[in-house]
Amino acid sequence: MKQVVDNAPLQQLDEWDDFVATRYRQDKSEEEFRNYKADANPTVTEFYRQNHARQTLDFVRNKKAEYSGLKRGKKSIWEMAEYLNTLVDDSDPDTDLTQIEHLLQTAEAIRRDGHPRWFILTGFVHDLGKVLCLYGEPQWAVVGDTFPVGCSYSDQVVFPEFFAANPDSQIPEYQTEYGIYEPHCGLDKVHLSFGHDEYIYQATRSYLPEEAQYMLRYHSFYAAHRHGAYRNLMNEHDESMFEWVRKFNPYDLYSKGRERPRTQDILPYYKELVSEFFPDKIDW
Ligand SMILES: [Fe+2]
Ligand SMILES: [Fe+2]
């Protein structure tokens, strides 16, 4: 029991999402922004402490090997969404959105702005990778801002001081500007800290356009898409594709409204949209 508690400082995964949304609140002044630590409650801080200390290059390589083969069985997008919904069962049903509601709100905000159907669908699936938690992965391996491992850490990553506790920080080869990578090698060759982004990217990549793949894979890579860090590793193709990552981000951050989406009314639209791009069941 102790072990479980130690690995789960967040009461729910949404605490991390809420912290990020507060960090980038639209009416924030530059000074308030620089003081983001004031918005982080102790559980969020403890979560980042664990995340930064434990996401090593070795860990990431192992997790990618474990999950990218998609050997966890076949499920439809809908079965996965229902499964994800079981994640939050002890929260207040009156105020907290379910996971499906967050996905629908994100997708609906994209739809309202007249974006293409694949973009709306990307909003709908973007957080399904959080089922990693239901597989027993600790919170620090499911959510959190992502960052490259195997090269020096940018101080544009939140709580950069916590990297001192990461064993990789003692390996000089991993702490140079490029580390194990070549200059501008392209992000596909770079290992990012493991989490729900990588998993949903792997599970859906054969069915969605490349723009969507970038949105899914890098949506938590704030140091790069918000702060322009790690351009030394990106190639020109990444740079142009990151336009889409940036286009997606506000819908993830700011679509969380007070009003619950009218799920029953909009469900038929999403049933049709999902079946336009995905077969009945896909590998997870
Ligand atoms: Fe996410
Ligand atoms: Fe999200």
Q: If you had to describe this structure to a student in words, what would you say it looks like?
A:
- Helix 7 runs antiparallel to helix 8, helix 7 packs across helix 12 and helix 9 runs antiparallel to helix 10.
- This protein has a two-stranded antiparallel ribbon.
- By secondary structure, it is mainly α.
- The chain is globular, with a radius of gyration of 18 Å.
Short account of what is shown:
The protein has 284 residues and is an all-alpha fold.
Give the SSE map.
Elements (H helix, E strand, L loop, with lengths): L1 H6 L6 H10 L6 H5 L7 H13 L2 H11 L6 E2 L1 H9 L13 H14 L4 H9 L70 H9 L5 H9 L3 H4 L10 H19 L8 H15 L4 E2 L1
Bound molecules: fe (ii) ion (FE2) (2 copies).
Mean pLDDT: 94
Shape: globular
Q: Helical region count?
A: 13
**Range of strand content:** under 5%
Along the chain, the helix and strand elements come as HHHHHEHHHHHHHHE
Portion of residues within helices: 40-55%
Radius of gyration, in Å, reads: 18 Å
- The biggest beta sheet, please? 2 strands, antiparallel
List keywords for this structure.
two-stranded antiparallel ribbon; 2 strands; mainly alpha; 284 residues
